[in-house]
Design brief:
Blueprint (H helix, E strand, L loop, with lengths): L1 H16 L4 H9 L3 H11 L7 H8 L5 H13 L3
Helix pairs in contact: 3-5
């Protein structure tokens, strides 16, 4: 039961950040580390190439935090 509650809490921030736009969105994303950004991207787009391993295989380099922020922002803002 505790694991289920923790899983639901973890999902909460993923949904909540999708409600933000503009400066509020950028402020919230700025608090995230690269791992959290990759985690969100994988959750939002399970078919995307975001993990270091997949990115290295496909593109020959790992996604930078700046690239992750750009992709995450674009995905959230285009969800309207």
């Amino acid at each position: 039961m505790i694991k289920i509650m923790n899983d639901l809490k973890d999902l909460g921030w993923r949904y909540q950040i999708m409600e933000l736009r503009g400066e509020a969105l950028q402020k919230e994303i700025a608090t995230l580390n690269r791992h959290c950004i990759i985690d969100w991207l994988q959750w939002n787009d399970p078919n995307g190439i975001y993990t270091d391993e997949a990115s290295m295989q496909e593109f020959g380099n790992a996604m930078s935090i700046e690239e992750g922020i750009e992709i995450m922002t674009r995905q959230i803002e285009s969800a309207d």
